[in-house]
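2 proteins. here.
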Amino acid sequence: MGGEPSNERLEFLGDAVLGWVVADLAYHHHGDLTEGKLTDLRKSVVNASALAEVAQEIQLGPCLLLGKGEDAAGGRTKPSILSDALEAVLGAVYVDGGADAAFQLVQRLLTDRMGVAALRLDRLDYKTVLQELTAREFDTAPVYVLSDSGPDHEKRFFATVIVNGQSVGAGEGRSKKTAEQAAAEQAWLELSSHVAE
C-alpha cells in the first residue's frame, strides 16, 4: 500500500467520541425528552448530512488531502467525504488533546444545532402527511420538480410540488431533502385548509 496514510482509524475513533459527547449533551441539556426522543435528537446531528454541513461551516474541505481524481470530481464538497473528515478530526483531537478537548470541540460545534433540532422533534414530516392527504382526497401522489443553482460548494435547491397538474407549494434549501420538505409543508398547509372548508 503506497500513498498517504488513511484517516479511517481516526474516523472510527471520532465516530465513537461523537456518539458519546452527543449522548452526554442530549442527556444533560434535554432532561424533558424521553429515551426515544433523545435517540431522535442524536440521529438529527450524528448523520452524514448534518456533519457535512458542520464541516462546510468550519471550511474543512479546502484542508483535505485528496487524490487528483477525487479532487477533480468535487470531493471537497461531497457530504460523505466531509462527514468522514470531520469524524477523523474529532478522533485526532481526542488522541492529541484527550477527552476534555474532544468534548469541548463537539460541544462548540453541535450544541446550537442540537437546540434547534430539539425544537423540531415534534415537527411533522410534511412529505409523508402530504402524500397521505393527496392519496385520501385526490387519489394521487404529489410530484416534486427540482432545480438547483450556484456553485457546488454553495448550491441551493428549489422544489415545487405538483398535485393534479397544479403547483401547490414551493420551497428551497441547501439540500434536495430540505427543499422538498419546505415545499411539502407549504402544499400541505394550502391543501389542508381547502379540504377543511
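next one coming up
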Amino acid sequence: MADSSSRMRLDQPRDRRRSLRPRRSGDSDRFGRFAESFARFMGTAQFLLWMTLFIAVWIVWNVPYGPDRPRWDEYPFIFLTLILSLQASYAAPLILLAQNRQEARDRVQQEQDRDATAQSHADMEFLAREVASLRLGIGEVATRDFIRGELRGLVEQLQEEPEPDEDDPHGA
C-alpha cells in the first residue's frame, strides 16, 4: 500500500516548483538603484584616482625589474587587461540602465511640467476674461468721482435758483 503522504492529493496545493529564475523580493527596483549609484560612483574623480592607483600598483609590482618577488602578471599584463575588460563589460550596461532610468524620470517630469503649463495657461486665460468682464462692468458703475461731480452740479443748480418766499407756499 502506498504511503498517503507520497500520493498526490487533489484537495491540497502542490509544492512550489523550483525555478532557476531569481526570486523578486519586495523591492523590485533595488538593482536599478544599485546601477545608478554605481554609475554615479564611476563618474567621480575618486573612482578615477583609485583606479589609477590600483593600475599603477599592479604595474609596479609586476614589472620584471626591481627586487625579486612573486609576480602574477608579467608584461604585457594580460590578466590586468582581462580585469579592465571585465570591468568595462559590466560598467557599460549598468551605465545604460542608469541612463534609461533617468530618461524615464525626465519623461515623467516633462509630462508633469507640460500639464502644469497647460493648467497655468488655462488659468491665465480665465483670469484675462474675468478682468475684461470687470472692466466692462466698471464702465457701467457710477464711480465716486462721477457721483461727487453730479452732486456738485446739483448743489450749484440749487444755489443759482432763487429761494422761494416764505409767504408764498407754492413758490409763485
